[in-house]
Amino acid sequence: MSWSCPTVKAGALLSAVCCLSLGQCRSASCYSASNVFSSRPAVRGLSVHLTVFMTGTFVELTLVVVGEPRGQGAVSPPVLGCGAVAWRERWGEEGALQVLLEQLASDPGLSGRDQVQVCCIAVLLHPVGGQRPRLGAQALTDHPALHARMEAILEKHLKKREINPNVRNMKPLEYSILAGRLSQIKEELRQGVKKPYQEVLDVYMGDPHKGGVKPLSFVRQVLAACLYPQLVNSSKLPADVRQRAQRLLGRCDGGSVGSYTATRGIPETLIRVSEFITRRDGGVPSNPENIFLSPGSQWSLSILHVLLNPESSPRNGVLSPVPCHNTTTMSVTGLGAVVVPYYLSEEQGWELQVEELHRAMESAKGVCNPIALYIVNPGNPDGHVQSRKSMQEVIRFVSERKLFLLADEVYQDYVFGENSEFVSYKRVLSEMGPPLSDTVELASFHSASKGWMGECGLRTGYMELVNLDPAVMKHIFTMFSTDTCAPVLGQIALDLMLNPPQPGEPSYPLYHMETQNIKNTLAGNGKRAVEVVNSLPGLCCQPLEGGAFAFPKVYLPPSFIQKAKEAGLEPDTFYCSRLLDEAGLLVGPGTEYGQKEGTYHIRFCILTSAEIMEEVLTRLTCFHKQFMKDFS
Amino acid sequence: PQLRLSQAANGVPCRGKVLTVDNMNPRVKKVEYAVRGPVVQRAVQIEKELREGVKKPFTEVIKANIGDAHAMGQKPITFFRQVLAMCSYPELLKDNMFPEDAKQRARRILEACGGHSIGAYSASQGIECIRQDVARYIEKRDGGIASNPDNIYLSTGASDAIVTILKLLVRGEGCDRTGVMISIPQYPLYSAAITDLGAVQVHYYLDEANCWSLDVAELRRALNAARQHCNPRVLCIINPGNPTGQVQSRQCIEDVIRFVKEEHLFLMADEVYQDNVYAEGCKFQSFKKVLFEMGPEYSSTVEMASFHSTSKCYMGECGFRGGYMEVINMDPEVKAQLTKLVSVRLCPPVSGQALMDLVVNPPQPDEPSYTTFMKERTAVLAELAEKARLTEQILNTVPGITCNPVQGAMYSFPRITLPQKAIDKAKEAGHIPDMFYCMKLLEEEGICLVPGSGFGQREGTFHFRMTILPPTEKLKVLLQRLRDFHQRFTQEFS
């Protein structure tokens, strides 16, 4: 029998050479194990018997653990040793292993899986009826209980907590790098360190209130009255506010926003949502039974969890745009599925092209089995608004390719391109008529974080499901019910967002003024941002049609890219980090959202007050001009 | 009308569904959640029928199925709501209708919010100054044992935090799949999440004969048995217990901690009922406090997470979905992964975070709101204690029902003796016997409870979970009707 003794890296312990067999004879193991290793030059390893009771038969295992001192290079053969010691006889199985592993842990060359190379060789040499023992990983596959036991013992003794590999595989956020720097800067400013700015402007997220947009008075007045019902009887608030609050409280159990609601949301609010959808879509019916409220649209995406089968082989895939806000792709990875990127065409104003969808489908061959297409319209971060024609093509595509359509439409109110108009996928689907309108399965998302009130902090969104199999709906309901319900204040805010004050009501004039103001500011900011960005050398922004962001391309000189590499950062993250440091402006790097290889972008929120937008653009201009000087 | 699948329109063959029961995530298919299960769904239907004028032997459905205090008429704490109202509509700060300490709290919270609005996103881990307040609260609660705000994660109710930790720890295939030890009976959020994540439930039984106490020998039995088919990595403890209402003794907590250390398990301590302790001689002690009092051998090694929420205790603000967890001894690298995981959902509701802040930082003796606050808090807890006692006492007068003392939390979980004929009848109809019982109770008396099978129970025993939350008078009526029903039921099937 010939052995090779591989050096295995962190986490690969279980693929280490292992050989085991079943049998009754015990003495043979000592002999064989010694025999195998006696020719090796050193004796630092230890071995021990491990007996596991399994399916009525004793499996006897000799574990030889071999360590290699750090810093001596991975190529040299590991120092190893052996000697089958019948410690089990003395201390029992657990005790023996403990001694072994404690020695291992106290070895300065071996301080845990991630830092040192550990070679673990499990040997069991008891030929059954003259059979040769099986070698390697195959043996572990054959004896999963033993495999698990080894893993458990090693985990326990190496004191290392291993976690869900799907979570590990989720792409780390570039934001965390910048956020670390952000809190440092804030602290420095607090301590009075001199900087060219007095405070940091943070336009990383699509967060209007953070960007200086004021909450809508009507919404906040109703919420206050719901929170503190004495206000319902107080003349401090307009009559329609008080009526609205009273009506909404009447729908809460016990008349309190502190009680749970039904799983899918307050029943009357679900009806309001469906009425809104019907109105928006020119009369296309919407069934309240198909609407689910959740603590934000990222929670609604747990529909993916129903769609994606973690046990399927090949794995499930989701076609997802590039660029795309990062949380969705993280969710897909976190569920153990594969993100299949399709690229939006930057040159065509970030248009979605169906040929690209076909290409993406082809690219998935042999990798995964795509089952859903994710669309963001209006686009985040790209600000493109899809045309009806493009949507029709997408619908035909998903029908042909048997994909579930996920339409993220949270920016539906933010459309300001001259010839742009938001049309919902539900509406286009319905207008296309049968068989498409009866068959294509669609989930559409909207959120109270957006709209004119922009209440991100209240965390409520809704999802409408179309054409789903009723048998599946039952399970979706159960899954949602484990989350109990969406925050009640958020549900109320959503109700108000979809049913604003009407002309003639006391709150209407103020409401109208505030929303018009935000609408105009957004359109103005969009125009202004494109204008300013495009006036700068090396920056180029496609015309914005909608959404809450600008996503300009930024040309980064090779010398800067080199510098970024030295800093261990993605070039655009490095750019953002400099921008933050030097100008006190926090924007997102394109890397966070995905971009064509070799291109770089930045994203910033344009749904801010006009003053803040001006300040953002001034800081960007100032920084970028200096930057181009420094690196050209 | 709903859009429906047409068989074939215009001769075009219909496209089959992408998502069907056959190809959907098989784990989701297995998820059950009794707290909002068939009995509750039927209760909602019955309420609708009552509204439509359908004649029933009762005029309203009493819902004692879910720990939802406000729905049962409990009033919110005035101070909390004043502050939150001002946070929502800061114009109210200019008014003189609210006390100065409430105003000061509202200003402080708004100061910590982006754009001074609770409508802005917060950091994914939660607003920093609120995490600091939580840490200080924990220190005070635990007699000075340090708590680091970096270890606090605010969450969307405790459930969110619990599922997040489970998601982080579930791994492995086949026999290496993570096993999660949960009590029987247990709160079905755990079983649902474990099923959903494809992990393995490892059941340990609480000792009904000893007031639902937990015995480490039973933990060990369960662990060893489970090792044959999975890799147990997590132990979940609910203290005070849900649905069983027991409060763990100091000794028992120490035993659990020793066990967890020996077996290198991650400990999840669900302590959302920490203020709900009623029985004489019982006292809530946090796992963290006991862990640190056991010395560095334990306090520097045992990994754990402790959960709390705004939904229970004296405030009962379920609708805000506020909560937090504290993680202890978590490997920094693993913590970084946790932080990444929580960032996917952006942030917990800021209104819930604000409320959590008030819960951990209530009015102090020298502040104007203190007296009212304490009066309200004490009244709620005293009433709950009285209802806990009342429930146990009355239930134990019913032949065929035995109920352990409700030492804490918000539920009683009495054992019911069902006649063999009823069991047979239920099985014939394809029902679990206690589900059959609860459905019949609902139809005949308008009382909505959750069958014991939804929480797990020893084979051959039957229970139900009932909250102690209805107002005292209503609770008495409920218990009276329950007694009548049980006697009628027993006669009918004997």
TrEMBL record, chain B:
UniProt source species: Sparus aurata (Gilthead sea bream)
The gene that this protein is the product of is GPT
- State the protein's purpose: Catalyzes the reversible transamination between alanine and 2-oxoglutarate to form pyruvate and glutamate.
Query: Which reactions is this enzyme annotated as catalysing?
Result: L-alanine + 2-oxoglutarate = pyruvate + L-glutamate
Q: Which cofactor does it need?
A: pyridoxal 5'-phosphate
Q: Give one GO molecular function term.
A: L-alanine:2-oxoglutarate aminotransferase activity
Task: Spell out the protein name for this chain.
Answer: alanine transaminase
Q: What is its EC number?
A: 2.6.1.2
Outline the extent of the Aminotransferase class I/classII large domain.
98-482
GO BP of this protein: L-alanine catabolic process
Q: So, what pathway does this thing act in?
A: Amino-acid degradation; L-alanine degradation via transaminase pathway; pyruvate from L-alanine: step 1/1
Keyword annotations from UniProtKB, A to Z? Aminotransferase, Pyridoxal phosphate, Transferase
Entry-linked Pfam families: Aminotran_1_2
UniProt record similarity statement = Belongs to the class-I pyridoxal-phosphate-dependent aminotransferase family. Alanine aminotransferase subfamily.
Q: What is the lineage of its organism?
A: Eukaryota, Metazoa, Chordata, Craniata, Vertebrata
Sorted alphabetically, which CDD domains does this protein's record hold?
AAT_like
* GO CC annotations on file: cytoplasm
- Quaternary organization: Homodimer.
